[in-house]
Design brief:
Blueprint: E1 4-9, H1 21-24, H2 29-42, E2 46-51, H3 55-64, E3 71-75, H4 84-91, E4 96-101, E5 123-126, H5 131-142
Parallel strand pairs: 1-2, 1-3, 3-4, 4-5
Helix pairs in contact: 2-5, 3-4
Bound molecules: ligand CA2.
């Protein structure tokens, strides 16, 4: 079966490349999305992108991914640390979930140390910068 990936980025990740380059790099979200689509295609997979600043819209996207995508790559942004709703939506789909964080959430403020997603994710990539998204695509290709 061809693997199909939905890449979901959460709140404020639309600001990538516009500020805080020391934490989040200098590539824009569009740069990252184009790079991920190309990289997935090179590995023989289809990747679709989605970004929202709204928790409910992310819940909707996860629900609607059911039976459409075999894998989700998710950077839920700050909702990582707060959202039982996104966790519950993930538990309702069969897709394997790979969690990505550009920064190392475990070396930042205490409130970023806990993720509601990590224990239900197949793998977690933190603190690798933007290449963490590529690492997640490679991990899916290698399954
Ligand atoms: O390290 C990550 O990828 C985070 O998911 C990013 C979230 C943060 O709340 C998480 O704790 C860790 C914040 C995203 C903010 O993105 C920006 C990007 C550029 C400029 C400003 C914000």
């Amino acid at each position: 079966m061809t693997k199909s990936i939905l890449l979901i980025n959460g709140p404020n990740l639309n600001l990538l490349g516009t500020r805080e380059p020391e934490t989040y790099g200098s590539q824009t979200l569009q740069d990252v999305e184009v790079m991920c689509v190309k990289h997935a295609r090179e590995k023989g997979m289809e990747l679709t992108t989605f970004q929202s600043n709204h928790e409910g819209a992310i819940v909707d996207a996860v629900q609607q991914s059911k039976d459409v995508y075999s894998h989700l790559i998710m950077n839920p942004g700050a909702y990582t640390h707060t959202s039982i709703a996104i966790r519950d939506a993930i538990l309702g789909v069969d897709a394997k979930v790979y969690e990505v964080h550009i920064s190392n959430i475990h070396e930042r403020e205490e409130f970023r140390h806990h993720s509601y997603i990590s224990d239900i994710a197949k793998d977690v990539f933190v603190g690798m910068g933007i290449p963490g998204y590529i690492a997640a695509i490679d991990a899916i290709a290698a399954e």
